Amino acid sequence: MLFINPQWQGSGITNELKAGAETLKLFFKDYKFKEISLYEKDLETHHNIIAYNSILKQTEFFKNEIAERKLKKIATIGGDCGIEIIPISYLNKIYNNDLCVIWIDAHADLNTPESSPSKTFHGMPLRTLLGEGNENIKKLLFSTIKPQQIGFVGLRDLDNPEIEYIASNNIKSVLRCDYSDLENTIKSFNNVYIHLDLDVLDESEFKYTMFPTSNGFKINEVNDLITEIKQKSNVVGICITESKAAKLEQLEPIRKILEQIII
Ligand SMILES: NC(=[NH2+])NCCC[C@H](N)C(=O)O
C-alpha cells in the first residue's frame, strides 16, 4: 500500500514540502495511493516542538489510516521525516521487533525536544521511535524500537547530543553507500525497513530538499544500494522524505529512486 503524507509542519515554518508532496502526487498519478489529510492549524510551539498540536493531529490521522488496514508492507512518500514514527512503529509491532531500520539520511533525527537546536519535529522521529520524547506523541506509537535495530548510512550533519547518543548506544553508522558495510546488521533480522531522506544526496545531484549539502551520495549509488537491499532481504517498508521539488521535471533525475518505493 502506498501512502502520500504531505506533512510539512515537522520541517519548521515554511511549507515547501507541501508543494513537494503535490509534485510527487503527480509523479505517482498512475499508482493507487492514499493521501493523508493535512491539519494546518495550531502551528505554535509547545513542549519544545514547533507546530506541536498540528503534528499530534497529523500523526493521529496517519495512525488511523494504518490501524484500520491489516497491512504487511507499507510504502510512504513524504512530507517530512517526522511521518516515519507511524509506519516504522506499526511494522516493528507486527514483525515482533524483527525489523532492521536502514536510515539513509544526512541527519540522524535523534534529537529530543530539549536537545533539538531547531525545535522542528523532523529532527526527532528516530529518538521518538526509540522511546524518548514527548509523551503524547509517544502514546500514538504502535511500538518502540531498540538502538541495535538501526543502521545509519551517510550521516554528515549531526548535533553533538546525537553524536553522543550514537556512540553510547553503539549504533551502526556507515559512511560509504555500500551494501557490504551493512550486510551484518541487515542479516541479523528477517525484515528490513528503508528510510531515505533525499538530503543524503549531494546537492549537485538533487538540490530540492530542505537541507541540500555537499559531500553527499550520488543518485546511482543510492539507487544501487536500495536495489541490493531489496534483492537480498525482505523489505517490508520504505519511505522517501523531504522533497520540495515543485515541478515534475525536477524529479526526473531521481526517477529510478522514486520508483523503488514500489515494494
Ligand atoms: N529530517 C531532517 N531533515 N532533519 C534535519 C534535522 C536538523 C537538526 N539536526 C535538527 O534537529 O534540527
From TrEMBL:
The keyword Transcription does not apply. This is Arginase family protein. Belongs to the arginase family. It comes from Flavobacterium soyae. It comes from the Bacteria. Keywords: Hydrolase, Manganese, Metal-binding. The keyword Manganese applies. Coiled coil: none annotated.
